[in-house]
Design a protein that fits this description.
Shape: globular
Largest sheet: 8 strands, mixed
Strand order of the largest sheet: 6-9-10-26-25-24-19-12
Radius of gyration: 30 Å
Strand content: 25-35%
Oligomer: single chain
Structural class: alpha+beta
Number of strands: 26
Mean pLDDT: 94
Helix content: 25-40%
């Protein structure tokens, strides 16, 4: 017999009754039923109930066991009494009577309990992550993640993609976040960087004649942590294709992701239609470029109804250039109590508040109520109601100013309204492609034009588009949102040096600077670069959605905490003087 086990803790059933078996695992929990000790023995695969009474030659040793001790047992498989069968586990028909036992690893008093659903501070969970990962929910999340990655790989191979690995140690290449720098021992004073993404390398592969590339790629960005973002590293399904247009990329990635969500979504509905929404429309309707389409609320511009109205605050706002009044419809939200609650929400978000109107039945017909209704009068109020297609029992909330000053709060308010009024469908994955991103924006303080989004996207219209107003230039850039999260980002690349130099020139970067910062890619484009494009899907966020978790750290094996610290491994740590001397580095003391 094998030194540790003949079966896993999920394999035994009624067919094994009478056999002598060997199992190994962790003591999940112990129950003493009048001198008979029942132990749930757990391994990665499942649980088997083992038992011991005073007739066992190792009864005294078994009495000393504690939770999470790692043990090996030998015993006889017995059938459970019919009324004691546990149909919830694969081994529920049997139990194993212990004849011999060996302690493989004793455990000290646990800082957190593995059995059950007790809540522990995140700092405790991360410091003892190796224990936290023993919990059933965490085991399930990590198995899900592994299965999703395996399925992604197979689906990409099925579409004739090949997997290639790109360098981890490379040159710094700004892509919207801070690099992690790596000092060079052989070249003192110079630094490598960990790649924020395989962006340049995958484009170079297209120039090299590789028609379809993909990779389960690690990416490194020194970012501030959020619930849906790791502060250090993450993984993405990275892909690139030659001789493609934007729709070709959509048609390639949609069946992969739709299949993943159908396979692992736990029975939740997966939308088959993925609408394409312009960036500007997404901002107007949803207040974000990653809208949650499970929520049917769509915001609208209602400026004309307030222009010159009796509500002086909004009327004066509209006298300024570039301002608007936006309405957030709230079907079934027509109570003063709910309206006041949403107004308080806006104040917590840093705005003075939100105006509102709600419609109620007064017996003789519908009446519009609220401060705004009184100020703008029944005619304007009725026009707003008709535009928003609202009725008795409904409400609308209003924010005004320049869109960028209130849009984020408006988007959050839309989400809160959808949640509180039970308008947001829970058992559904709703996708939307966000397209037509503007390439440039103007800094209101300096008047300078700079890149608003990916500078390497091909401008729609090519060189001709760059001859006009930069703020009108759109790029072949796209994101995919799902349930309020961005899960894919990509673009058709700007592969023509002349167009690239012109695009950077508009943003104030000369040709020499472009060559210096992106020399490898620019040089390659001089030698017959094909049109190409691609995208990257965030694996961590996808698994987070599939696992129905609100925090990305629940689907990452060994995540950092909110301060980008690894409490378990004590990272980051101070280098030794010897290491610093070898790298010819000196560490400055932190500023007060």
């Amino acid at each position: 017999m094998h030194a540790f086990r003949s079966h896993t803790c999920a394999e035994l059933n009624a067919a094994h009754v009478g056999e002598t078996v060997r199992l190994a695992g962790w003591v999940h929990r112990i129950r003493d039923h009048g001198g008979v000790l029942f132990i749930d023995l757990r391994d990665h695969y499942g649980i088997t109930q083992v038992l011991c009474d005073p007739d066992s030659p190792v009864f005294n040793e078994v009495e000393n066991l504690r939770s999470e001790w790692c043990i090996r047992i030998d015993g006889n498989v017995k059938a459970r009494d019919a009324d004691l069968v546990n149909p919830k586990i694969p081994t529920g028909e049997i139990e194993v009577f212990i004849r011999d036992m060996e302690v493989l690893g004793a455990a000290e008093e646990l800082p957190l309990i593995v059995f059950g659903d007790q809540e522990y501070p995140e700092e405790t969970r991360l410091r003892y992550r190796f224990l936290d990962l023993r919990r059933e929910a965490m085991q399930d999340n990590m198995k899900l993640r592994s299965d999703v990655v395996a399925s992604m790989r197979q689906r990409m191979w099925d579409q004739d993609f090949r997997e290639h690995q790109t360098p981890i140690i490379t040159a710094s290449s700004p892509e919207g976040a801070r690099d992690f720098l790596v000092p060079s021992r052989l070249h003192p004073g110079k630094f490598y960087a960990l790649p924020q993404a395989p962006q340049q390398f995958k484009q170079l592969l297209m120039v090299s004649g590789f028609d379809k590339y993909f990779q389960i790629a690690p990416c490194f960005r020194d970012e501030d942590p959020r619930a849906d973002r790791s502060p250090t590293d993450f993984y993405q399904l990275d892909l690139e294709m030659s001789f493609v247009e934007q729709q070709d990329v959509f048609d390639t990635i949609q069946p992969v992701l739709q299949g993943i969500f159908e396979e692992f979504g736990g029975g939740r509905t997966v939308d088959a239609e993925w609408p394409q929404i312009s960036y500007r429309d997404a901002a107007l309707w949803y207040g974000t470029d990653k809208p949650d389409l499970r929520n049917p609320i769509k915001m609208q511009d209602v400026s004309e109804h307030f222009r010159g109205s009796g509500f002086a605050i909004f009327a004066k706002i509209l006298e300024q250039e570039g301002t608007e009044i936006r309405a957030i419809p709230a079907p079934s939200g027509g109570s003063r109590k709910f309206c006041d609650r949403m107004n308080a929400f806006a104040q917590k978000e840093g705005l003075p508040g939100m105006g509102y109107i709600f419609w109620r039945d007064q017996g003789e017909g519908m009446e519009a109520a609220g401060p705004l209704a009184k100020n703008i009068g029944p005619e304007r109020t009725e026009a707003i109601r008709q535009q928003l297609d609202l009725g008795v029992g409904d409400a609308a909330f209003f924010l005004g100013g320049k869109a960028k000053t209130f849009e984020t709060v408006a988007g959050k308010a839309r989400d809160v309204i959808g949640e509180e009024l039970n308008l947001t469908e829970k058992d559904r994955f709703a996708f939307a492609w966000i397209v037509d991103f503007p390439i440039y924006e103007r800094d209101e303080e300096t008047g300078r034009v700079d890149f608003e989004h990916n500078p390497f996207s091909m401008p729609q219209g090519g060189m001709a588009a760059l001859e006009g107003d930069p703020l009108d230039v759109l790029g072949y850039q796209y994101d995919l949102s799902c349930n309020g999260y961005e899960i894919v980002s990509g673009a058709i690349r700007n592969h023509i040096p002349e167009i690239m130099f012109k695009a950077f020139e508009i943003a104030g970067y000369g040709e020499d600077e472009v060559k210096k910062r992106f020399g490898g890619m620019v040089n390659a484009f001089r030698f017959g670069a094909p049109p190409h494009g691609g995208c990257a899907a965030g694996i961590d966020r996808i698994v987070m959605l599939l696992a129905d978790e609100a925090n990305i750290r629940e689907v990452i094996l060994f995540p950092m905490n909110q301060r980008a610290e690894d409490l378990m491994m004590d990272a980051p740590s101070e280098p030794t003087n010897e290491q610093l001397r070898e790298l010819r580095l000196r560490v400055l003391p932190p500023e007060d």
